[in-house]
Amino acid sequence: KKYLMYLLKNSSYYFFLLGILVAQNSFEDFKRKEAMAFEDHKNSIESDYNNFVLKEKRDFQEFKKNVEEKWMNFKYSTSTSYVSYDEDLKSRSIVDFDLGKVTVEVILDDKEDDESLNFEFDTKNRTRFGHLFQNFPKNNLLLISTGFLFYNQNADLINDEFSRSNTKPIFQNLSDKKIFKKLIKVLSEKDDSGKPLLKDQLIGKNGKIISPGKSAEIFAQEQIKENKKTVNSYKAKDGKIRNMFSIDFNLRSDHKETRGDLYTKEIFHQSQRFKIDPAIAMAVTETESSFNPKATSHIPAYGLMQLVPVSGARDAYQYVYNKDKFLGKRYLYKPQNNIELGCAYLGKIRHVYFKKIKDDEKAMICTVAAYNTGVGNVSKALTNTTKISPLVKKVNKMSSNKLYSTLLTDLEHQETRDYLKKVWSRKEKYN
Fold first, then answer.
1. Which of residues 427 and 132 earns the better pLDDT score?
2. What is this structure's pTM?
């Protein structure tokens, strides 16, 4: 009886303890489930990235094989050039954003180009241009490979009439026709933000900027007329004899500055957001891609600031949004996304990994090198260890000049040494 009374008297206390135990067990169970869900999510992201890299490599090798079956050589996009093939793989354009040159190439089976594109000067055209042909025998009418109609001393008059009319260009050779078509495509192509890839980078004879549409068509005709077409004959891997026809022309002389101007506002905005020097961010972008929005490297890395999906891009996204997410090339080709994460990655290196380096200039020297080769490799160059603490201790005792010269000597890869030198010299023009 006494024991029963004791239990009843203290039951509230025991229920309280029981509640605590149950709550603790529930919380531990909740934490376990959260940890498992987090691990599952992380593994899923890792799997997405691994599959992405494998697919990119597999697709690239398959594409390379198909191109090499037909072409004399294989050309592909890099960090500073953009190569675009037509679906049938018989035409391609190469935009070299560093040198400022555009090349258009087409391939035809042997003898295919010799079969002239027959042109009949129909009644309607004879009526329209008849005043230019009066008193001249028909056999003096010439069609040349530039695709323009010429007739002795009246050549310029006829050319002008065709340019002003809605008449499409007339081509005697199939190669000229295909070059023209590919030229129009590259002049009209857009980047992943929807802006023309060559926006403001070409100037016509009249001094006006070339834009998609009629001015692009006239510009394309002019390039075919004025630039020497080269022809190379070869035997392809598929056993066929083919000819490769190509022309090239230059972008405007200040093409790099003009292109950089398109991104200056966004780069300055994101630089300030992540507390880094905008001049350094501009110099990094120029060095990474020559302001090529379709920049691609074999690593693979994508976009203006050449972000690697599995490392720099992922690290930067977690830094900005505090969550892990798969980022493919479509996301990274968009200039705004790329600039945001590129500046964020510079910011994280500076303010997280190198936050204990007291002097900002020295911190940024290390940051620029680390952006290219990784934090561990910068530490290794200075301290023979990948740990950050010894690096910070040593850097804080060095002068900026000593640090810079030491990295230019002791960084393992020549590519990184050249990279640091380029960025550090180019930043001056953006100050």
1. 427
2. 0.81
